[in-house]
Amino acid sequence: MRLALLLTSVHPAIGGVLVRGEKGTAKSTVVRALATLLPGRASLVDCRFGCDPAAPDPGCPDGPHPAGAPVAERPSRLVELPVGATEDRLIGSLDLERALSEGVRAYQPGLLAAAHRGVLYVDEVNLLHDHLVDLLLDAAAMGRSHVERDGVSLSHASVFLLVGTMNPEEGELRPQLLDRFGLTVDVSASREVELRVEVVRRRLAFEADPVGFAAGWRAEEEALAERIAAARERLGAVTLPDTELRRIAAVCAAFEVDGMRADLVTARTAAAHAAWRGAPEVTEEDVRVAVRLALPHRRRRDPFDEPELDERALDDALNQAAEQVEPPEGPDEPPDGPDEPPDGPDGGSTAPRPTDGRSSSQDEGRDTNGQGEPSGDGSSRPAPAPAPPFRARLLTVPGVGEGAPGRRSRARTEQGRVVRAATDNPHRAADLHLPATVLAAAPHQRERGHAGPGLRLHRGDLRHAVREGREGNLVLFVVDASGSMAARRRMAAVSGAVLSLLKDAYQRRDKVGLVSFRAGGAELLLPPTSSVPAAAARLDRLRTGGRTPLAGGLLRARRVLAAERLRDPRRRPLLVLLTDGRATVPVRAGSDPLRDAVRAAALLAADQVATVVVDCEAGPVRLGMAGRLAAAASGALVTVGELSADRVAGVVHAARAA
Ligand SMILES: [Zn+2]
Question: Which residues are part of the catalytic machinery?
Answer without folding.
Answer: 261
